[in-house]
Amino acid sequence: MSEDNSPVEKESPADDSVSTPDPEAVKKKTSDERRVMLEAEGLSKYYGKFIAVQDLNFTIHEDEVVAFLGPNGAGKSTTMKMLTGYLAPSTGTAKVCGLEVADHRNEVANRIGYLPENGPLYGEMTPLNLLKFFGSVRGLDPGHLRTRIEKVVEQCAIETVANKPINKLSRGFRQRVGMANVMLHEPEVLIMDEPTAGLDPNQILEVRRTIKGLGKTILLSTHILQEVREVADRIILINQGRIVFQGTAEELQDEPSLDQWFNRKTLLKEAS
Q: 36-118+187-271 maps to which CATH number?
């Protein structure tokens, strides 16, 4: 057998610049392409000469959990009420799923679930009766309502208290009943004002676990800075009605103390 002395072609090295995409670029592209679910454009609210909120501009994308931080009186609740249509802005525009809140109040109401701090619950009702009542008020078909009740009871982990009077439940369970109620109509966006306020450490952990498992676009105001690292993808910090920081939770990983970071961003502004 004759030996084949023809030259062997060497394989060209792979061109990494072509075959291996930049992970950060992919991540950014994925984030940028996500649907905008909540948007504030120059959002302001004045009461006479008092400035409650001034010129807020931000967007929240699909499936993001955004922590809305600020000291007492910073304008968090005012902003949430404008985003949900409970309060009309003095200037600027609030949008939900691309719809201007001022022009599409009924449609926006169907797309959001709003859980105010100390949201209204009828204490003499059981969670199941409460959900049936609000579902019927919203006009949900009885068959679909039964399915939705089963789903939100499971999602919010209230099976063990579903038939107990709400006024007999712990504050943590009442908060979860409130979450179940605002999710009943399958909203695309959840807005929660201080959902862990007044809870003990165990109850806070349970509510955080519930929030993380919802798989929704969520704007959540809080005074508890640890929740930023526990549940949030991104942070919006306001002080004296103005945004003083917007960024990702990862940007705060090198901060030795979130309390000190919060103080730097708010107390110094107040003193100036």
A: 3.40.50.300
